[in-house]
Amino acid sequence: MKLYSLDLSPYAARVRISIYAKKLPIEIVAPPAAGIKSAEYLALNPMGKIPVLLLDDGLSIPESETIVEYLEDAFPDPSLRPHGPEAAAHVRLIARVAELYVMSPLSALYPHLDPARRDEAAVDAAVARLESGMSYLETFMAQGPYAAGDKFTTADGQVTPTVFYLNAILSRIDRLEVMARHERLSAYVRTAKSDPVLAKVMGEMADGMKNSGR
Questions:
Q1: Is 203 strand, coil or helix?
Q2: Among the CATH numbers 3.40.50.2300, 2.60.120.10, 1.20.1050.10, 1.10.287.3510, which is that of 85-212?
Q3: Checking CA distances to 69, which of 123, 155, 173, 189 falls within 20 to 30 Å?
């Protein structure tokens, strides 16, 4: 099997976390040299997005959430999905809130990373929406140390790239105090840095950011 991935992609990072945590023999490769909009890549994923998991029989599976759930079903040991429907729903909820209510408004800040082109009023509005999402996420996260409690789960696969981007983007727009106001997310950063799998992926993302020149 192969995972088409880019180091900086939070969606690919989510899948790599599952692969490393489960110690799966999946080759991680870059997309074709012609890019994700090339005919070669579009044959794997007509949406032209990262990541895609290519199975040995030629079937391709796009979309990070779908891939993560597939890996849990196909390789249940070790499981990153807690036992019981309520606990499993809690893990999925954390991942969903992080993606929709934090990563989505965070992307609205990308056009304002350059101070020369920054609209402070637009930044204020985006940060207000972002803080609402951060508060929602903290409400559903467990006390820790991991996203859903004492054990590593698939929720950590979404929360880790989320906090990486929170720190990176808020730093670039001089709003790191926003992160400091959210103690549970700040504490989670320390968890991610101390866990070998999560720290590895955060390092890959940092390398990807450095190599991209962002």
A1: helix
A2: 1.20.1050.10
A3: 189
Separation in Å, CA 36 to CA 17, 57, 162, 195, 204? 22, 21, 23, 31, 20
pLDDT above 90 (res 194): yes
This prediction's pTM: 0.95
144-193 confidence digits (pLDDT tens): 899 999 999 999 999 999 999 999 999 999 999 999 999 999 999 999 99
Separate counts of helices (H) and strands (E) for the chain: 10, 4
Q: Which two tokens stand for residue 55?
A: 């199975």
Q: What are phi and psi of 120, to 5 degrees?
A: -65, -35
The secondary element (H helix, E strand) that includes residue 163 is helix 154-172
